[in-house]
Design brief:
single chain; about 300 residues; Beta-Lactamase; 2 domains; 7-stranded mixed sheet
Length: about 300
């Protein structure tokens, strides 16, 4: 299922501020594999100087592919085509978070804390998020701050799209005394919105519980009367983002690599650069320079497009 036509930059308006997730071994909803310290753009690695001024040739020609404003615009458009689709999921998650906050506020006005049964009202909205964005989102829900519920010390209300079986609820061990205890408060998708008050994108990381694939988790803070009460979020398969990005990357006519805010490769148009691995660790990225994104042309998410020299 494809998304709606991407609007122009003017139609999109100001981008949603997204805080870059900190690199940790557990970046997502489930315990992520420790793939080593993140590197690449933004990590201090020298990926080379920015591309120089253009020659004024036709932007569609090979000679102009590495020069001039036409090249910058093409790279920015490729990046925007991908990030805009992810932003649509983020906007749906924000709406889910607002609904969760409204339910919590209603309970507060009634003079009580939330109960787990209150959260059942969110299920149709979660199902709508997963249906509307089925080409990207594979799981969604809310995760509450410890103590936010009257009848449970911690809470994960998360559903994932189980192919052929509809929606399945995620169950994890939230008992601090258990050897299998899952402390979601240490994850980037939880800690970054809690600390910054802004949306976050964590990953890609390996999701060992639901998808067993490289995954991003986008999340937004849920606030009740100005206090942090948890997050709403969604899981996005990295493979789906890669498929979304590949046509644009291939059309640039040279090596092009999309990397996350923490420097991990999301997609590339060459077999010599592997998704999920920090760009700095890959020889194929050694001579690449930022063409769009943080440090070059600002983008709506903290992702960067790297390209080879002309």
């Amino acid at each position: 299922m494809s998304g709606p036509p991407r609007p122009t930059t003017a139609e999109r308006g100001a981008p949603v501020p997204v805080a870059g997730a900190e690199p940790t071994a557990d970046a997502g909803l489930t315990s992520g594999a420790d793939l080593g310290p993140d590197a690449g753009p933004g990590s201090g690695a020298d990926l080379g100087p920015d591309a120089g001024p253009g020659s004024g040739e036709d932007p569609g020609s090979d000679a102009a592919a590495g020069s001039g404003g036409g090249w910058d615009e093409r790279c920015a458009a490729v990046l925007a085509d991908v990030t805009w689709r992810v932003e649509q999921v983020l906007a749906a998650v924000a709406a889910l978070g607002e609904e969760a906050a409204a339910i919590a506020a209603q309970a507060g006005r009634a003079g009580r804390l939330l109960r787990r049964t209150d959260l059942t009202a969110l299920r149709p909205t979660v199902a709508g998020v997963l249906s509307e964005h089925a080409d990207l989102a594979v799981g969604a829900g809310v995760v509450l701050a410890p103590g936010a519920l009257a009848d449970a010390p911690r809470c994960i209300e998360w559903w994932w799209a189980d192919q052929g079986a509809g929606l399945s609820q995620l169950y994890v061990d939230l008992d601090p005394e258990s050897a299998e205890f899952y402390d979601y408060t240490t994850t980037d998708w939880y800690r970054v919105p809690e600390r910054t008050g802004h949306p976050a994108v964590a990953g890609p990381y390996v999701d060992y519980i639901c998808t067993h694939q490289y995954t991003f988790t986008v999340s937004v803070p849920v606030s009740v009367e100005g206090r942090f009460a948890g997050v709403a979020g969604a899981d996005i398969l990295a493979a789906q983002v890669e498929q979304l990005a590949l046509p644009g990357l291939s059309g640039l006519g040279r090596t092009a690599v999309l990397v996350s805010g923490t420097g991990r490769v999301i997609a590339s148009n060459t077999a010599g650069v592997l998704p999920g691995v920090p760009a700095q660790r890959q020889p194929g990225c050694a001579e690449l320079v930022p063409a769009a994104g943080p440090g070059a042309t600002p983008g709506p998410l903290p992702w960067t497009l790297l390209t080879g020299p002309a």
